Fold Thioredoxin.
Amino acid sequence: MERLKSIIEIDKFIQESKLAFLYISSNNCNVCEALMPKIQEVLEKYPKIIKKKIVIDDIQEVSGHLSIFTIPAIIFYIEGKEIFRRARFISVGEVEALIDRYYKLID
């Protein structure tokens, strides 16, 4: 997953992507590293979703900008509007079901 490095990049990505998925983590987060491959595996089934990663160590102000209070966190947007977010305890099955439902509506 490509990393976003600034608030401007994040906002541009959200606004310009029809289907946008953000994965927010930290360099020292073992749970984040364990969850990432599982989320990527789910997202491979949905090629129209553009996915990016944010490492909060790179952009300290992102926590306030996106209201991230714990990591790992994921946020899914459709046409710039937040559709759902999950943080800390993330069920991969639930995420896949939500993505699938919205993806079928858009497709």
The chain has four helices and five strands. The first strand starts at residue 2 and ends at 4.
